[in-house]
Amino acid sequence: MGRRAESIETRRKLLEILRILRESEMPLGARVISEELRRRGFDIKERAVRYHLSFLDAMGFTEKHGRRGRTITELGLRELEEASLEERLGSVRVRIEELMFLTTFDPLSKEGNVVVNVALVDKRDFERLMDVFEELSTYAVSNYVKIVDEEERVGGLFVPPGKVAIANICSITIDGVLVKSGIPVEPRYSGIVKISGGKPQRFIDVISYEGTSVDPTRVFMSKRVTSVCDVLTKGTGRVIANYREIPAIALEKAARVIKSLEAAGIAGVITFGTCHSVLGIPLLRGRAGIPVYAGVNAFAAAEERGIKTETLPMHTVMPFKELKPP
């Protein structure tokens, strides 16, 4: 199906339609499928759903039952299984590399695209979430955000009625700017860093980007292993950080680039390391480690305060000029 689909976005919609049909015990029509897709964040009209269903019929993935609607076929079930396997074998690192390439931000002019995380929250929780952004500075990448209202779109995501989307800067932006400056960057891990006395101690858990289709930061948030609010109030706790490596010979140049990013309002770098280990992660000779606080720490802190969010790490890129301090 991937070769015939017009785009990655179209493929996502086709697979989601198959998932909806698989979950149903009865045939479903285009109207019901369109409503369910909208509930899942896809902005797609009933007419477009009919077009996609015709395509799925032609491929043998769905079967039409008159006015009652469609069901998924055995061939459609196998297609979903193969797609799931493809996703599992895919790497988050590939997505990171794509976003690094799409980053065009220039710290000196403050122009160009940055990578952003996006979170959906109920409108009634919006002010409380903004309070979190105002408090969180040291343990995030930036306090710049973009607010997207209900029934608008951000990076292909449709904001449902009663919700609001908040986009904030992802640490992958730093990697993209380093790469554009001629510095090779190797994304390695996402993990949990222990903070004590207001100072980072070491990574106590890490997940490699290699060979996983699920962003590790989403895993850590779903497990609720952070204590960002404790770090803010007591100086001790656990936060999410990402770890990348560069050639040690490029460290001096990287330091200059990172300083220019900080002047532009994009920070979060914890330390530089060229010794045997960096915050407990072993380091090979000739390499330098750069751990950076994750932008999603703001959303993790919100969750700790009882604000329910649907967080999409490294969701898309957008012009930096569209983001403002809260």
Structural account:
The chain has 326 residues and is an alpha+beta fold. The protein has 2 domains: 8-89, Winged helix-like DNA-binding domain superfamily/Winged helix DNA-binding domain (Arc Repressor Mutant, subunit A); 97-322, 2-Layer Sandwich (Alpha-Beta Plaits), CATH 3.30.70.1360. It contains 11 helices and 14 strands. The chain has helices at residues 8-23, 30-39, 46-59, 74-89, 92-102, 126-135, 172-180, 216-223, 228-234, 251-263, 297-304, and strands at residues 62-64, 70-72, 113-122, 145-148, 153-154, 157-158, 163-169, 186-196, 199-208, 237-247, 277-278, 281-282, 287-293, 309-319. The strands form 5 sheets. It has a 4-stranded antiparallel beta sheet with strand order 4-7-3-14. Strands 9-8-10-13 form a 4-stranded antiparallel beta sheet. It has a two-stranded antiparallel ribbon with strand order 1-2. A hairpin with a 2-residue loop joins β5 and β6. α1 crosses α4 and α5 crosses α7 (172-180). Residues 2-6 have low confidence and may be disordered.
Quick recap:
With 326 residues, the chain is an alpha+beta fold.
Backbone structural class: alpha+beta
What is the H level of CATH, i.e. the homologous superfamily of the largest domain? Answer: mj0159-like
Q: Quickly name the level 1 CATH class of the largest domain.
A: Alpha Beta
Q: Report strand %.
A: 25-35%
Envelope shape = globular
List the helices and strands and how they pair.
Elements lengths: L7 H16 L6 H10 L6 H14 L2 E3 L5 E3 L1 H16 L2 H11 L10 E10 L3 H10 L9 E4 L4 E2 L2 E2 L4 E7 L2 H9 L5 E11 L2 E10 L7 H8 L4 H7 L2 E11 L3 H13 L13 E2 L2 E2 L4 E7 L3 H8 L4 E11 L7
Antiparallel strand pairs: 1-2, 3-7, 3-14, 4-7, 5-6, 8-9, 8-10, 10-13, 11-12
